[in-house]
Amino acid sequence: MVKTYWNVPKLNFVTKPDQSGILVIVYYLNQQQLTVNLNFEILKNNNFKIMILVNLIGQSQLHLTTTQNHLEANSTSDLLCKATVDQDSRFSYYGKVVINKAANQAHAYQRNENLILDSGSTIVSEPSLEIKANDVFCTHGSFTSYLDPLELYYLQTRGLSLCAAEKLLTKGFLLSGLDKLLIEPVITVSRLENLRQQVGHYLLSNH
Amino acid sequence: MATPVSDTHTQQWQFRFGSQYTLNAKKGLDYQLIHKLSLQKKEPDWMLKIRLQAYEIFKQKKLPRWGANLSELDFKNIFYYLKPHAAQVRRWEDLPSDIRQTYDYLGIKDAEKNFLAGVSAQYESEVLYKSIQKNLSEQGVIFLDTDTALKKYPDIFKQYFGKLVPAADNKFAALNTAVWSGGSFVYIPEGVKVDLPLQAYFRINAENMGQFERTLIIAEKNSSVHYIEGCSAPIYSTASLHSAVVEIFVQEGAQVRYTTIQNWSPNVYNLVTKRAQVQARASMQWIDGNLGSKVTMKYPSCHLVGQGARGEVLSLAYAANSQHQDAGAKMLHLADNTTSRIISKSVCKQGGRTSYRGLNYIKKGAKNCQTKVICDALIMDEKSRSDTYPTMKIDEQRAKVEHEATVSKVSEEQLFYLQSRGLTQERAQSLIVNGFLEPIIKELPLEYAVEINRLISLQMEGSVG
């Protein structure tokens, strides 16, 4: 099962037992403000990949809360949220992983990667783990940085303008998340390529 | 309310010997007590004024709504000031025998003999025993209890006291400012490097006794010091409160390392405010071990205010028997090229709960800052719980912020392997836990590292099955 969502303000996704799938959730905001709640209820023998891609420009603000709620045993959820903020925008991310008492053998992963593209933009990242079972493996990570000046310099030596180099690196950063889905059995190569183009077009329509 | 404790715990903590107090003040806090306390300490008027203002703030401030459960904390049922019957003495032999007996149990005398530069032992609310090696005084280093420092060096004291942790900071900082008593005062003059660690042994020894130490460390330009504070408290039936404030000023190019091992008995509320201000090219390192207490809320912080300042926190938390260790760190990057690192390791078992709570803040305009947080947690059984609540607030583009956290149980493969090499399951588990905590323990002075390794092995006994 592969599902895509575009700028959804709210999502309460309840899986079925023994189900696997990929969820791709995309936000592109230009001069907009949005508060989003995404709730994922993970049941027995589930294996879900959740990919959230965000591009904010023109003083936009996105307040995003995600909850990976592991309710039953032997379940896996892997959430990756990648965001770029430009033109005085603000991205606040609150990512929660909850492992209930009954959810032993749970594997829960959460990762938030952000790129700040101009001096006026800001990021708040608050990942949290609440673990009430003991036989689990959970990790979360959060990384925030800016475009590497050496990479920009290299691309310019190859003939790209600074602006084009920035666009290329930003696009690469956002879409690289999708490449990781290639090993998933639920998605084919052609479907993934299709998804890449769709998401790329939606996210970077201003470019 | 009494905390149920196991037999092992009772044995571990049962080493209190009776003491006599000069001023057996009544429980609870009011203006009269603060006046009395200040009068007895023969303090200047300005300090009494600060205390009274802080008491006003304390009454107005509410308990924090986040973090550990403090609802059982009864402020009316606590002694706020007790003074041991002995006056301050210089030599160990001059200490009253009952106090000496308790310290002997803790091994403080041997520790001093073998290793320490100076000992300032806190017995109840008053520092009784202190000895500073001659060469330290010759270098101009001041290492006193905070009460004496106020009398002897009022100018330095007034310049720094409450400047980093003002009374209005939080309810417990206000309480501490109102009733503070004892603690250490360390002043390192410019360019002086103190080779041996300075150490204070803290000790609570009266039922329902609140300890409100106030520690002030000032490291002038290009100086360096390592300060060690260790706690140990015997067992009581009702909850006790420990609420210290530590302020550290690290001036340009100076280096300060502050090591704490908190090992309060399992009925103590340990609610501490610790903060350091780090100037240009200076470095501050907090090493924080939380083993005991009923509830701990402690977040050592570094305000990196000068260019190129560095802050580091190594935090270790161990929670068992319904303990809640809510520990973490705060790094505020307020100047260019500042760097920081937080490493937190926690273990919870037998219904214990460990939480990491932290803040990494990059101020707008503070360029090329780097900060990294690593927190790892081990959950030993199904009754225990572990949480991670980090916050990263980045208001500047040119910043690199990293955070990673892992929570897991002891790996079956590792256990199986060690057992296949002939170790019992118990021994294997304790070996794995010690290995897990190794990155922090190796930073501790040797005697503490040995103590903690032993303590963890002891705690692991009977934890299998």
What are its keywords?
heterodimer; A: 207 residues; alpha/beta; 5-stranded parallel sheet; 11 strands; 50% strand; B: 465 residues; 11-stranded mixed sheet; SUF_FeS_clus_asmbl_SufBD_sf (chain B)
Plain-language structure description:
The complex is a heterodimer of chains A (about 210) and B (about 475). Helices cover about 20% and strands about 50% of the residues of chain A. Chain A has 3 helices and 11 strands; from the N terminus they run E-E-E-E-E-E-E-E-E-E-E-H-H-H. Chain A has helices spanning about 150-155, 160-180, 190-205, and strands spanning about 1-5, 10-15, 20-30, 35-40, 45-55, 60-70, 75-85, 90-100, 105-115, 120-130, 135-145. Chain B has 12 helices and 23 strands. In chain B, the strands form 3 sheets. In chain B, strands 5, 6, 8, 10, 11, 13, 15, 16, 18, 20 and 22 form an 11-stranded mixed beta sheet that branches. A 10-stranded mixed beta sheet of chain B has the order 4-3-7-9-12-14-17-19-21-23. The radius of gyration of chain B is 22 Å and the shape is globular. Residues about 1-20, about 85-90, about 110-120, about 120-130, about 200-210 and about 230-235 of chain B have low confidence and may be disordered. The chains are: A alpha/beta (about 210), B alpha/beta (about 475). The interface of A and B includes residues 126, 137 and 139 of A.
Helix proportion of chain A: 10-25%
Biggest interface, CB < 8 A: A-B, 33 and 32 residues
Characterize the quaternary organization of these chains: heterodimer
Order of helices and strands of chain A: EEEEEEEEEEEHHH
Helix content of chain B: 25-40%
* Global Rg of chain A: 18 Å
Structural domain tally of chain A = 1
How far the N terminus sits from the C terminus of chain B, by CA atoms, comes to: 30 Å
Largest sheet of chain B: 11 strands, mixed
Question: Please, how many domains of chain B?
Answer: 2
| Principal-axis shape of chain A | globular
Give the total of beta strands of chain B. 23
The helix-and-strand class of chain B reads alpha/beta
Structural class of chain A: alpha/beta
Mean pLDDT of chain A: 92
- The proportion of residues in beta strands of chain B is 35-45%
